[in-house]
Design brief:
- The chain is built from 13 helices and twelve strands.
- The chain is α+β, with helices and mostly antiparallel strands and 357 residues long.
- A hairpin with a 3-residue loop joins strand 9 and strand 10.
């Protein structure tokens, strides 16, 4: 580690506000006796809402869709938005939509009556995979994760450990994860900003901060993530810009993930452009506070919250709008001539920082 990077680690270490300070709760994912019982695979050929594949038994199974939820593996990119996953997760629980502390595993008798397909699937798995013919009991399919269940159906950030720390906002709060951590903020209005920070190059130096504090578990473990340094901008303009661009990137990454391996070059460049702008604003907030005035003025003139619903509007229209905003910023700020290098260590530079837009 270079001296300059060591100084950066020390500076981050001294930041007084942490993610733990601004969060209501930071908690780990669920823990099961046998993940193959709960985890399901969507068949490539499609089918009904209740049709899945069981990896453990290597056969089709049918389960009531009311008990099945989206699953976050964290194995691939999950930045800003969740990549569509072929996996689902069965939770045989009664989960309150209103009171976060109300959750109960469905007892076998009730499960057999209300959800006979799930009951039959669990019983078959127990007999064929575990070779256990004893009567079914709740302990056979219950999970560990008190806080996960308490905050189910609650909006949250889910941070996972990919190539770098990565974070996505779960607006519905119904994604299941095993590795990583869930983050529920005290101020719901700052989810987009914190998501941007956790996806910035600040996260690249965070493992070094963990090592300096002798925090040795995974750096996305709750104990480590509570120490993640948080700095808010001195002015609302910068925070609003980061928040808005974070929303742009959530939409753009959903578009990218939906196209899988057929992502066009122009979309990659568009995402890279907004990622660099977001990262630059975050780094300036943390370390420099000396952003090029020309670039800042161009951003203020062109970056505005989208008035409609970015989840429901025509995607082509939104993509065209974001491309137009990019061009306006480039023209108004002489972007290529703006001071983009803040004089920080190489670890803070995005790999696409030299991309031509």
């Amino acid at each position: 580690m270079s001296l300059k990077q060591s100084e950066i680690v020390e500076k981050i270490y001294e930041i007084p506000v942490t993610l733990g300070d601004v969060s209501e709760s930071i908690f780990e994912g669920i823990n099961t006796k046998n993940s193959l019982l709960h985890r399901l695979y969507l068949p490539e050929e499609g089918g009904s809402d209740s049709y899945y594949l069981c990896e453990g038994l290597c056969e089709p199974v049918f389960i009531e869709p009311e008990l099945v939820y989206p699953y976050v593996s964290g194995a691939s990119s999950e930045k800003f938005a969740f990549r569509p996953s072929p996996y689902r997760f069965m939770l045989p629980y009664e989960l309150s939509m209103e009171k976060k502390t109300e959750y109960n595993v469905i007892p076998p008798e009730e499960l057999k009556t209300k959800f006979p397909m799930a009951y039959g699937r669990i019983l078959e798995f127990k007999e064929k995979f575990l070779h256990d013919t004893s009567p079914l009991k709740s302990a056979d399919y219950s999970i560990k994760g008190r806080q996960f269940l308490e905050y189910f159906n609650t909006p949250k950030i889910i941070a996972t450990e990919g190539y770098h720390l990565q974070a996505a906002y779960d607006a519905e709060g119904n994604h299941v994860f095993e590795n990583g951590c869930g983050i529920v903020l005290k101020d719901p209005g700052r989810y987009a900003y914190i998501t941007a920070v956790l996806n910035s190059s600040i996260a690249r130096i965070f493992p070094s901060v963990c090592n300096s504090e002798m925090i040795y578990p995974s750096y996305v473990a709750p104990a480590a993530m509570k120490r993640f340094p948080i700095v808010f901008p001195d002015n609302m303009l910068t925070e609003d810009l980061i928040t808005t661009i974070s929303g742009y990137l959530a939409f753009l990454n959903r578009e990218k993930y939906a196209r899988d391996y057929g992502v066009p070059d122009w979309l990659r460049k568009l995402i890279a452009f907004y990622e660099q702008i977001s990262n630059l604003l975050v780094l300036d907030t943390y370390f420099v506070n000396d952003l090029d005035p020309g670039l800042l003025n161009a951003l203020e003139e062109n970056i505005h919250p989208y008035a409609g619903d970015m989840n429901s509007e025509d995607s082509d229209t939104l993509l065209n709008s974001l491309y137009y905003i990019q061009q306006q910023i480039l023209e108004a700020s002489s972007y290529q001539k703006c001071k983009f290098n803040l004089g920080l260590p190489e670890i803070f530079n995005f790999s696409l920082s030299n991309e031509k837009f």
